[in-house]
Write a structure and sequence with these properties.
Blueprint (H helix, E strand, L loop, with lengths): L1 E8 L6 H9 L4 E4 L6 E9 L2 E7 L11 H12 L4 E7 L3 H12 L5 E6 L1 H6 L3 E2 L1 H8 L3 E3 L8 H13 L5 H4 L6 H15 E2 L6 H9 L5 H19 L1 H21 L3 H38 L2 H13 L8 H6 L4 H6 L7 H11 L8 H11 L2 H28 L21 H35 L4 H13 L3 H18 L1 H9 L10 H12 L3 H9 L11 H10 L2 H13 L4 H11 L2 H28 L3
Parallel strand pairs: 1-4, 1-5, 5-6, 6-8
Antiparallel strand pairs: 2-3, 3-4, 7-9
Helix pairs in contact: 3-8, 5-8, 10-12, 11-12, 12-19, 16-18, 17-18, 17-25, 17-26, 19-27, 20-21, 22-23, 23-24, 26-28, 27-28
């Protein structure tokens, strides 16, 4: 059976993903192009004795190498093997889409046009003369609707017919020297000849008059984002709690029933804790991406860049940076993944670096603990709000500094794609969200497991058998349960202090001596590199109060108040605000940025910013006598 490779090519938002989904059903394979994080969707079907292999190439506006997507698609079309180009167009925006079609004709390759969204063109009273268009281009043109699977079989017939009979025509070769400017001019002329349009105001124009309003547009967008944000972290908390509780129960069960304590601790505190850390992020990711993918599918997200681009460019960012930055207030993992909407590598890298300055929800327990201890109840809410605002301000200032220093270069020009409003395919939205979830688990899961085991080892070894025997003897000799508990907590604290991680904490204490951090605060910060959620519970063990404590623990609050000064507390909060994200986020950052060298840069940059801000905050509080 002969295998034929078909490249699906088109501009963004023309429905290529919907088309490949309509062709394949559920038989989709999603991966990345070699060496980059750009997604590649492909499928293989059998039709009339042929094996048809479809590859959905990244959307592009013209055949150039400006953005990463355009570079990938252009390189594929020039250098890879394929048998046919299926150029997918939006029937309601033919003039814009035909500019790319005319450039594709210069490749002298077998090609046909799939005029998608023909149902929407009919609703807008657009009449397309496909025969005239076919005559002028010298290739076959067919109207389809991927959403309603209209003419999909006819498209497959046209593919077979073009592959087995047609050859590149003289009309195609006539465009051999066509550039982008001339392609746009000819496309407009061609569209006017082949389309009859009713110029009455349509639904899209009416809705845009509200959503793109100079005054109301931005507040409306913020309301939409607030709704997505609220749904993500209100609905997501329920399954997250269930997952964490289930993993904790399973871990404790293993520790109780496995006769070898060390093995039980490894499985429960190490491996299962790592799995739980990965899975607990998943509900938030699914809900957040569901909202973003849905808004993208409606055509609304294209308008967001127009609303925000001008403001963010003052700080060296791009309008499309706003969605990842807002997502960063919830969780950095999906926020890093959301930077894929940025086409220019410099804009994407800059956004990736700034996301960490948006305080994620995992930092909230730390803020709550210290604010509750050192501030009165009537101002605690305002202080907490100020923490988030300060983080965003420092992030924008840092973006400007990075743009002027490390990330110099030409920013992505503002190319605004304004598709028609449409209700997205719910099946396509679901598949997109599930594919992103699979990629997250595949990328982050293995690394987190390994790191969790290493952290478990670092906090449990080496063990001082003499110290353990001494405390166990004292515990056995006392009959007071309260005294036994106190001795056990002291033993845990001393063992942790003598562990590899404890020794590292003591080794870095001189670095934080100017802010008067003791070794316990230093070890807590180290544990925070794995997950910010464990900082509070780690402090419970470090201050000999036992495990399982949270930000509402009275005993923990009293211990911190007795051992940490107000200026040190301010410095600690500021350092937590800005230093490196958790392990899960760092792994995803590395994948999205393109290598570990960027993770090293992020660690150095955030550490410097965190240290400088903590240092300044400490001495301001000290100077004010607080």
């Amino acid at each position: 059976m002969q295998t034929l490779t078909i490249a699906l090519v088109g501009q963004p938002n023309v429905g290529k993903s919907s088309l490949i989904n309509a062709i394949s059903g559920a038989n989709l394979k999603v991966g990345n192009f070699s060496g980059v994080t750009i997604e590649k969707t492909q499928t293989t079907i059998t039709y009339k004795g042929y094996t048809l292999h479809f590859i959905d190439l990244p959307g592009l506006y013209s055949l150039n190498d400006y953005s990463l997507e355009e570079s990938i698609t252009t390189n594929f079309l020039h250098n890879s093997h394929y048998d046919l180009i299926v150029n997918v167009l939006d029937s309601t925006n033919l003039a814009r889409n035909l500019a790319l079609s005319l450039q594709l004709l210069t490749l002298n390759h077998k090609m046909l046009l799939a005029l998608n969204m023909s149902d929407e063109a009919q609703k807008e009273n657009l009449t397309l003369d496909t025969q005239l268009l076919s005559q002028k281009l010298g290739i076959e043109c067919i109207t389809i609707s991927a959403k309603h699977k209209y003419n999909i079989t006819e498209l497959l017939e046209s593919i077979i017919r073009t592959l087995t009979h047609n050859q590149p025509s003289d009309a195609q070769r006539a465009f051999a020297t066509l550039d982008s400017h001339h392609a746009s001019t000819q496309a407009l002329t061609l569209a006017k000849a082949c389309i009859t349009q009713n110029t009455a105001t349509n639904f899209t124009q009416k809705l845009d008059s509200l959503l793109l309003h100079k005054v109301l547009g931005l507040p409306i967008f913020l309301v939409f984002m607030w709704c997505i944000f609220q749904l993500t972290f209100s609905l997501g908390e329920y399954p997250k709690t269930w997952i964490e509780s289930s993993m904790d129960f399973l871990a404790q069960t293993l520790k109780d029933y496995i006769p070898y304590p060390e093995l039980g601790s490894l499985l429960g505190d190490g491996i299962l804790s790592g799995v739980g850390a990965v899975l607990s992020f998943l509900p938030h990711i699914l809900i957040l991406f569901l909202g973003i993918v849905f808004l993208e599918g409606t055509g609304y997200m294209a308008r967001v860049s127009y609303l925000l681009d001008g403001i963010l460019r003052h700080f060296g960012l791009h309008g499309k940076s706003f969605i990842p930055l807002v997502s960063g207030f919830g969780c950095s993992v999906p926020a890093f993944m959301a930077t894929r909407t940025l086409k220019n590598p410099i804009d994407k890298l800059l956004t990736l670096f700034i996301i960490n300055f948006m305080s994620c929800s995992a930092r909230l327990p730390i803020y709550t603990l210290f604010v509750g201890i050192f501030f009165s109840a009537n101002v605690a809410g305002s202080v907490l709000f100020g923490i988030y605002i300060l983080g965003a301000i420092i992030g924008l200032v840092s973006a400007k500094v990075l743009r002027l220093s490390i990330f110099k270069g030409k920013s992505e020009p503002f190319v605004m794609e304004i598709p028609k409003y449409r209700l997205p395919s719910f099946k396509l939205v679901a598949l997109s969200v599930l594919n992103k979830a699979k990629m997250y688990l595949k990328k982050a899961g293995g690394f987190i497991l390994v790191a969790s085991i290493l952290i478990w080892f670092g906090t449990n070894y080496p063990k001082d058998s003499t110290l353990i025997d001494s405390y166990e003897t004292q515990i056995a000799l006392t009959h007071s349960q309260e005294t036994q508990d106190l001795l056990q907590k002291e033993l845990e604290s001393k063992l942790l202090e003598q562990s590899f991680l404890g020794k590292i904490g003591e080794a870095i204490t001189p670095i934080f001596a100017p802010m008067n951090f003791d070794w316990r605060l230093c070890v807590s910060l180290l544990n925070g590199l794995a997950a910010k959620e464990v900082v509070v519970s780690s402090m419970g063990v470090l201050y000999a109060l036992g495990e399982g404590l949270d930000e509402e623990s009275v005993s923990l609050q009293e211990a911190i108040r007795a051992n940490v000064s107000f200026p040190s507390a301010i410095a600690f909060i500021l350092f937590v605000m800005f230093y490196n994200p958790c392990l899960a986020a760092t792994i995803v950052f590395t994948k999205e940025a393109g290598g570990w060298r960027y993770s090293a840069m992020l660690f150095v940059f955030t550490s410097i910013v965190a240290y400088v801000c903590a240092f300044i905050g400490y001495f301001i509080a000290l100077a004010l006598g607080l």
